[in-house]
Design goal:
Layout: E1 4-10, E2 19-25, E3 28-34, H1 52-57, E4 66-69, E5 72-75, H2 78-96, E6 101-105, H3 114-126, E7 131-132, H4 140-149, E8 151-152, E9 164-168, H5 172-175, H6 188-197, E10 201-205, E11 218-220, H7 227-240, H8 246-252, E12 253-254, H9 256-262, H10 268-275, H11 279-291, E13 297-299, H12 301-305, H13 309-322, E14 349-350, H14 380-385, E15 394-398, H15 402-405, H16 409-418, E16 421-425, E17 438-440, E18 450-451, E19 463-464, E20 466-467, H17 480-490, E21 496-497, E22 500-501, H18 510-517, H19 525-532, E23 538-539, E24 558-559, H20 563-574, E25 593-598, H21 612-615, E26 623-625, H22 627-633, E27 640-645, E28 648-656, E29 664-668, H23 681-684, E30 710-716
Parallel strand pairs: 6-7, 6-15, 9-10, 9-13, 10-11, 12-24, 15-16, 16-17, 25-29, 26-28
Antiparallel strand pairs: 1-2, 2-3, 4-5, 4-17, 8-14, 18-20, 19-23, 21-22, 25-30, 26-29, 27-28, 27-30
Helix pairs in contact: 2-17, 3-17, 4-13, 7-10, 7-11, 7-13, 10-11
Bound molecules: ligand MGD (2 copies), iron/sulfur cluster and molybdenum atom (MO).
Molybdenum atom (MO) binds next to loops.
């Protein structure tokens, strides 16, 4: 009789870290289900998490190192691939210097925690600052605006404590995206419904009547790209009606009067006409939000990817701050990440040094500089293509897919083609992997020991889970970070993590490496391992502590209106409008529609497109159009259209959607390749990033291009 063992582990498809049980027979996974005993996720899994077995056993999974030759890809031994890659890297460094070697840590690099630290250690060792990650494609303003605005040490109100929540351009019922203060990832449908049943006022601003919008007490449905206008309008109402938290503002907020003066042009009528929502809704949203006692406004990808994403995030922080949506002295915030170092949270504002600007290394193009220890993704293609010192000649792509995720797809194709060495660590023949000189197959999640290290920053509770590996990886597979250790060893470069030199004779094991990365944590990694490796994740409520008083020497105050923000508000108000009250720039190049980005349930960016159960739910990224637009263009469902912008054109498969306004087209990104055409678009979709310019519109600090609210022209393909 076949023996079955059951292992408790957790899903790493997204940062939700849902507790699961996996049944294994003779080394093969045979069944998987949510773990009902998990104290955080309670047995929840989503349709992507339920495909983990397919992910591991799929016949198309790349299991051996591949080298591109004149005859296509050929399987070679892993050690040979590593030797050849190291030799090329060594020669390039000797010829061009360290900066010629670049890494892009894609979204799956984040799923294996040590990857970021070890890739950075490798880059330090070879003297290369050429690091990239989706951080600068994916809501960078959210991460960096607070550095300038001010950060409340006690933390912002979380969803579970809220009596009001404002979701702006996020759809967590589909994306299950763990925005801080937003809806937690695990079991979002039930958690949202329970909260509404308990009296939560949910407000949503989204150009689409989304799954969350359908549950909202009030949904504002603007044109894409108008969030800064709506937020300015709401703030004006709140301050004029004295609905803000005046005593908090007296104690902690600067420039309130000047800020109100800068909002003068943003009357409800102006904002309403421009954004395409009734003026009364702007007033009602302002009142409902401000009258709540706890709960924050949170944004997703929508507003940040649209024009003036930095200003939009600023105004969201301003809204939360003037309404005082922070934990005060004596209150106990819900979170206390067990594997992070302890921190005293105080009733005070702090300003970390801004990790951008003139003091940082500058890119060779577009006047953009480093953001933290990375360059903005926006410059990567041009850093490859632009001749001169520092030009990127070798690129490692770990769990990412620049061919579909970066702006200006056609330029990215030329850039990848131009490289002397492209290495993809990817289990699938992705649009990027196809162009690589070498593909290295990664060890996948059930084959790894891991701890809930990034996820814990987003959980609403103090919770941790350590998992051992459940399945054995193939002999020719590597974890992403192991690639860098293997290359460093071959290049004689010492690697240092947290100032500790790594053993360069024997590869460190995952546990000791993770222990190094979590030195000084609230709970030692080994303790979390003892507590959870066999029985599943654990809550550590005893770690929660109350917010301490303001330190006597801390006089910091939130800055509502520094000069750059005053200038941006003035520019926004001065934008020329057309006869309908819409900004003239949305008609650039004769554009007929605004393309709004979205996510779809079955795929996670470009992952899962070849999983049969997910493909069954639809294999293309439909171009959703309002029925009136379809009638005007003579279109029926499933007809083909061309969507074009100055950077290129794509084919789209049309689908009617009355949940958006006429003039808007709603489409998911991360589909297709440069060969997407009328023949294959139904099975592989098209990349909306071919319509995104990296040069003409981008944020001057983060480099984020206009990845939503993109002006496009649509015509029927006969
Ligand atoms: N199923 C699934 N889940 C995912 C992903 C996936 O591909 N598939 N991707 C993951 C990733 S990488 C991320 S970063 C998260 C993202 O998580 P979310 O940001 O929640 O992603 P979306 O569901 O696309 O929600 C974005 C919303 O913004 C709206 N929008 C577009 N433009 C604008 C605008 O100008 N203003 C406003 N107010 N709204 C706008 C869209 O209509 C859409 O409803 O999701 C993660 N989860
Ligand atoms: N226009 C537009 N552009 C966007 C966005 C948008 O909404 N609109 N969203 C942006 C956002 S939020 C993000 S996060 C980026 C995403 O940017 P990327 O991270 O570059 O894109 P993904 O499609 O997530 O790439 C994931 C890659 O990892 C591979 N992979 C899958 N599983 C594993 C694994 O276990 N290990 C390894 N090593 N690899 C694996 C997949 O095959 C795929 O090639 O795109 C951004 N670009
Ligand atoms: S929500 Fe995220 S972690 Fe949970 S099952 Fe789905 S993909 Fe996995
Ligand atoms: Mo993302």
């Amino acid at each position: 009789m076949t023996h079955t063992t059951t292992h408790k582990t957790y899903c790493r498809f997204c940062l939700g870290c849902c507790g699961i049980e996996v049944d294994v027979q003779e080394g093969q996974p045979v069944a998987l289900r949510g773990d009902p005993s998990n104290p955080l996720t309670g047995g929840f899994t989503c349709l992507r998490g339920r495909e983990l077995i397919t992910m591991h056993t799929h016949p198309e999974r790349i299991r051996h190192a591949l080298k591109r030759t004149e005859n296509g890809f050929e399987q070679i031994p892993l050690s040979q691939a590593l030797d050849e890659i190291a030799a090329t890297v060594g020669a390039l460094i000797a010829r061009d210097g360290g900066r010629a070697i670049a890494t892009y840590n894609g979204s799956w690099a984040y799923s294996n925690f040590p990857t970021l630290a070890v890739s950075k250690a490798f880059h330090r060792a070879i003297g290369s600052p050429s690091l990239y990650s989706p951080m600068s494609l994916d809501q960078p303003a959210k991460a960096f605006v607070p550095f300038r605005f001010g950060i409340w040490s006690g933390g912002m109100h979380t969803f579970s404590d809220a009596d009001v929540a404002l979701f702006i351009g996020n759809n967590p019922l589909v994306s299950q995206y763990a925005a801080k203060s937003g809806l937690p990832v695990y079991n979002p449908w039930r958690r949202l419904q329970d909260a509404i049943n308990n009296g939560l006022q949910l407000l949503v601003i989204d150009p689409r009547r989304t799954e969350v919008a359908n549950r909202a007490a009030l949904h504002l449905q603007p044109y894409p790209g108008e969030d800064p206008v709506i937020l300015a309008g709401m703030l004006r109402v709140i301050i004029d009606e004295n609905l803000h938290d005046a005593s908090f503002c007296t104690d902690y907020v600067d420039h309130l009067a000047a800020f109100r003066a800068a909002l003068e042009p943003f009357t409800s009528e102006y904002c309403a006409r421009r954004a395409g929502v009734p003026a009364e809704q702007i007033v009602a949203a302002a009142r409902l939000f401000a009258q709540g006692s706890k709960g924050a406004a949170v944004t997703g990808t929508g507003p940040e990817m649209s024009p003036r994403g930095w200003l939009g995030e600023w105004l969201v922080l301003a809204l939360n701050t003037v309404c005082g949506r922070y934990y005060r002295e004596g209150e106990t915030p819900r979170t206390a990440p067990p594997l992070s170092p302890p921190q005293t949270q105080r009733a005070e504002v702090f300003f970390p040094p801004e990790p951008w600007g003139e003091q940082m290394l500058q890119s060779r193009v577009r006047g953009l500089g480093q953001l933290g220890d990375e360059f903005p993704c926006n410059v990567m293609a041009d850093e490859i293509l632009t001749p001169g010192e520092g030009r990127i000649r070798a690129l490692f792509v770990l769990g990412g897919n620049p061919m579909v995720a970066f702006p200006n797809q056609l330029k990215m194709a030329s850039a990848l083609e131009d490289l002397e060495l492209l290495v993809a660590v990817d289990p699938w023949m992705s649009a990027t992997a196809k162009r690589a000189h070498y593909i290295i197959p990664p060890v996948l999640q059930l084959e790894r020991a891991d701890a809930t290290l990034l996820g814990e920053l987003y959980f609403e509770e103090a919770y941790a889970h350590y998992t051992e590996r459940v399945l054995e990886p193939g002999p020719d597979m590597l974890e992403e970070w192991e690639l860098y250790w293997e290359l460093a060893k071959r290049l004689d470069g010492p690697l240092e993590i947290n100032r500790n030199p790594l053993n360069m004779d024997t590869r460190p094991d995952k546990h000791s490496l993770t222990a190094l990365l979590t030195q000084g944590s609230r709970v030692p990694l080994e303790q979390v391992r003892i507590d959870t490796a066999a029985t599943g994740g654990k809550l550590y409520p005893e770690l929660r502590t109350a917010v301490a008083p303001r330190s006597p020497d801390n006089q910091n105050r939130f800055r509502l209106l520094p000069p750059d923000i005053a200038a941006q508000l003035a520019e926004l108000a001065a934008e020329p409008l057309d006869a309908d009250g819409r900004p003239a720039h949305i008609r650039e190049h004769g554009a007929t529609h605004l393309l709004a980005s979205r996510r779809i349930r079955q795929f996670f960016n470009s992952t899962g497109h070849n999983f049969p159960n997910l493909r069954d739910k639809g294999s293309t990224n439909h171009a959703y159009l309002h029925p009136d637009d379809m009638a005007a263009l003579g279109l029926e469902n499933e007809d083909l259209v061309e969507l074009s912008a100055d950077t290129g054109a794509i084919v789209g498969v049309v689908m009617a959607a009355d949940d958006i306004k006429p003039g808007v087209v709603s489409m998911a990104h991360a589909f297709g390749d440069t060969d997407s055409d009328t023949g294959n678009v139904r099975s592989q979709g098209s990349s909306t990033n071919r319509l995104v310019s990296d040069e003409r519109y981008f944020d001057p600090i983060t480099g984020q291009a206009r990845q939503s609210a993109i002006p496009v022209s649509i015509r029927k393909i006969c």
